[in-house]
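2 proteins. here.
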Amino acid sequence: MIFTELPLPGAFLIEPEPHADERGFFGRVWCAREFATRGLEIDFVQSSISFNKRRGTLRGLHYQEPPHAERELVRCTQGAAFDVIVDLRPGLPTYKQWHGLELTSDNRHAVFIPEGMAHGFQSLSDDTELLYVISTYYEPAAARGVRWNDPALAIAWPLSPPSVISEKDQRLPLLAT
């Protein structure tokens, strides 16, 4: 696996290194030892999928507050998505900064999202599916979010306005200024 640190500290783009032959290829997308050598020790406890029927569907920006803060490894298994992480760690110089990247079933990239970041994505094609592996159990009382179009963030979503967004996500709060 190839780990590339993203501009937000602790977040990584992870690319598999496929070993190909006449059958196709084989490549690791998770290895506890390789993650641990980078200080990313994680015991994943939950895995989820997000299927998005229509191009332009936007989900997020979601996170869980401590003590239920999550670390996530997110990968697109079908279609394509513009994936966004937002740094919500007030003590860091990257506070309120965001980073977006394209995850597709063709590039097979994944993004590692540390605790203290909000996450969201917009599907770039119909029938897009993302796979999440998560370090903490979902705790509804700790679930929080930030509105996708918060002016304090000015995220450059590729398809704006979104074609589909839940009422709940439309009502998420803006960041306090």
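next one coming up
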Amino acid sequence: MKAMILAAGKGTRLGDLTRTVPKVLQDINGKSILRRAVEKCTESGFDEIIVNVHHLAGMVIDEVSQLNRIGYKISVSDETVTLLETGGGLQKARYFFDSNPFLLYNADIVTDIDLKKLLAYHNEKKGIATLAVRNREGSRFFLVNREGLLRGWVNRATGEKILVDNNKEELAELAFSGLHIIEPEIFRYMYEGIYTMTSLYLELASAHRINTLTVNTGYWFDIGTPEKLQEARKYLR
């Protein structure tokens, strides 16, 4: 099965750490964040991988080459000139995928979420995409109905709120975990440009099933700040 690891972010919240070393090459107990993501995908059966690159791209490409030399199968989607965000980045790499559902994985997420379970749930629910979500602190949340379908999005810090429709059903606020299983059908609705998968999902949710799977067990780290990086190192030591 195929996967895309989104590794092109600039990592600005990590401050000085990412001036000379990209976020995905930050070390966690002897392994780069990117290597941990590659291992996670491959162990779960997603063993054909494409990685997008932008900030300090040459260093990331060197890491990919080293991983390929020890047996992994990884291609590169080069966004050096223009960073395309998650949606535009996936669209650029669409040539890589086949007719089977695939995994989209935010490289800066370190977790023990069961990707096989996420895929099985996706196949059961028959949607165009399935998003792993979690009850956790934050400011931006998906709005999800009792059936687990995506119905909107809210940013508590700014007050911005987007609803898919005018239905008055009760909606839960759940934070995205950075993992998606997606049907290749989604490429029919994608286009070239700079945009996020969240904005695309909100456009599609009124006419297509976009499911969520809530996973609150195990560990989950978003390596977005030096503090979170240290927390992950300590937990996984």
